What does this fold into?
Amino acid sequence: MFGNLGFGELMIVLVIVLVLFGAKRIPEISASFGKGIREFKKNVNEVERSITEPEPRMEPRLPAPDPTVRREAGEETRPEPKRLI
It folds into this structure.
């Protein structure tokens, strides 16, 4: 079953868990355990995907226009926004 644990050993472990945590807390514990396993699997799949997929190519960016440079008369100019301070 689970490694070298047989049915008898699993029953003993389940009884000990029931005595330690009580019947009301066992569903909460199992739900949080399931969430942890799902998160772990999601992270493992994400790492595998990042390793196997090629890295996307980055498009070269043009430098931002210098606001101190005057534009030619034919170019569109926008009014400077009002400053609040």
Helices lie at 7-21, 26-52. Residues 23-53 form one domain. The longest helix spans residues 26-52.
